[in-house]
């Protein structure tokens, strides 16, 4: 099986508030119902799913979902783009965790959390090349 991810889903305790937050970042949903919101990420889908429905799907209680220790990351073509996107996330209501700065491995990263605590990292990685659509090029 090829290495791939086709869908990333986050549990949302307040789906409408989460959808409004991502909309304020400029994200456009391709589908929205009372239980789920999907965004097209050029070959990958990102979903916000009510915590109740996700817990039911996983045969768990909402309290057993937890938040885990994951980070969602977006790579940018420059440090300036990282700064601009980071500032926009904070202005939209995200919580600042780490202001973008140079990091020991040679890149530039900053972290923030959405209103429900999902952690995002915005980064510039000098070792990874992006194509004209902002996707990581294969083999780098």
UniProtKB/TrEMBL annotation:
Residues 4-125 form the VOC domain. PROSITE patterns: VOC. Transmembrane segments: none annotated. Pfam families: Glyoxalase (PF00903). It comes from the Bacteria. GO terms for molecular function: dioxygenase activity. This is Glyoxalase/bleomycin resistance protein/dioxygenase.
């Amino acid at each position: 099986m090829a290495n791939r991810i086709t869908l990333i889903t986050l549990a949302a305790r307040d789906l409408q508030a989460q959808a409004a937050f991502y909309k304020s970042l400029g994200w456009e949903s391709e589908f929205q119902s009372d239980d789920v919101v999907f965004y097209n990420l050029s070959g990958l889908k990102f979903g916000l799913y009510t915590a109740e429905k996700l817990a039911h799907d996983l045969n768990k209680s909402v309290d057993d979902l937890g938040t885990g220790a994951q980070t969602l990351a977006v790579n940018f073509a420059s440090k300036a783009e990282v700064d601009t996107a980071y500032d926009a996330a904070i202005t939209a209501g995200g919580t600042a965790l780490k202001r973008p700065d140079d990091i020991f491995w040679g890149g530039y990263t900053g972290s923030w959390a959405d209103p429900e605590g999902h952690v995002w990292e915005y980064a510039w990685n000098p070792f990874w090349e992006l194509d004209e659509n902002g996707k990581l090029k294969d083999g780098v």
